[in-house]
Amino acid sequence: MTASRTNTRIREFRLPDLGEGLTESEIVQWHVAEGDTVELNQIIADVETAKAVVELPSPYAGVVVRLHEAAGTVVDVGAPIVSFEVAAGPDDAVPVPASVPDEPVPAEPAPARREPNLVGYGAAVEKGGRPQRRGRSLPAANAPQPAAVLQPAAAPQPRERPRSTPPVRKLARDLGITLDTLTGTGPGALITRADVLAALAGTPSSTAEPASPGPRPRAVRSSTGEIRTPIRGMRKHTAAAMVASAFSAPHATEFLTIDVTPTMELLAELKAGRAFEGTRVTPLTVVSKAVCIAIARNPILNSSWDEQAQEIVQYADVNLGIAAATPRGLLVPNIKAAQSLTLKDLAQALGALTETARAGRTPPTDLAGGTISITNIGVFGIDAGTPILNPGEAAILAMGAVRSTPWEYRGEIALRSVMTLSLSFDHRLVDGEQGSRFLADVGTILRNPAMVLTMV
User: Fold this and answer.
1) How far is C-alpha 157 from the geometric centre of its chain's CA atoms?
2) For the chain, first and last CA: distance in Å?
3) Residues of CATH 2.40.50.100 domain(s) within the chain?
4) Does domain 8-150 have CATH number 3.30.230.80?
5) Residue 31 annotated to the active site
6) What pLDDT, in 10s, does the model give residues 139-184?
7) What are the distances in angstroms from CA 274 to CA 203, 269, 270, 271, 344?
8) What is the pTM (predicted TM-score) of this model?
9) Average model confidence (pLDDT) for the chain?
């Protein structure tokens, strides 16, 4: 409607990959409407990634002329989601990009333009037919682009390396799946996580990931009373991660039941004292601190297995992951360098972490780089379990419920506070002795917090 003006341009903003290697995301909510005037970096939408709901800033200042997709729609990465009317700038006068729509190859370049991993929040790539490109993109479009278009005259070249993202290639490698044998169902025949997992299960990939990404209902009740909910977003990512972990890392689990009465008494004292006034301290706080201390004595638990390099990577910092159940699925955000925090600082970090996770606002940086995790199944009244490793980590500790239990104490039977710890570890990295020593150290601290003085 404004294309006839010479002082304005229409700019499309395409859904970026927010650094997670995704092929699609769901638009949860729009914060703008058609006709609204927006500023640069103004929040225009909430988008659900595989791990969290993130805010999407506007890459332009101007007027919203069209919202291409409604809230609740699942959109391919690289697909247009909003168009802006913006003031024409100096870049719009550069004639070089005008050659892009005239390229003689009709089908081959299209997938290449949808493939770029648009890390961050900007629309770094705009498709042919829209000549505008950001200034730093012009040299790449000027020189290499024609060579890239003319080069694949022989059709077999794309088959030399199947199109996929680095996380998908790693998943396939861990599961022993050859990408050359798969047919991608993602945009431009991109091989997705679902394609790899479908190959592992021996089922057609097309049934695992529908080709059309249009609006999908959250739940549908059939005439027989069945309720079917599409698997997507966090739930889809969690399922793929758990399958990858279970089939790539040989899990071993050990259990330790201990008397934690001294820890519960310590918590009561801390809550009553001034030093922790206004700070919520829980058994999870003490267990988190105990894990950090035990790792200093058993550092192999804070490592990962690099299959490609055939190396064991041992980390200096303990990026402590805390499993959090949220309305959108399981998240494991982590506290960076948790070993350097005091007990009070750790308590405050845990409170902020869980609150942010439940609100669905955990930033991607807090979800990446974890080195060891804790899951508190005791809050659900569960005593023990066999937790699955967070992919890329060597161990995960499950906390059971604290129960008043008849227990042997000083040669007599007394009612004591008892907890069971469950430690799962990657047996490629961690031997039984190392896992046992780590678990025993955590148990020692919880049995008698004063024993820390003999351990640090």
Assistant:
1) 32
2) 70
3) 8-150
4) no
5) no
6) 443 333 333 333 444 444 444 456 777 667 767 776 667 777 787 7
7) 60, 10, 8, 8, 12
8) 0.58
9) 77
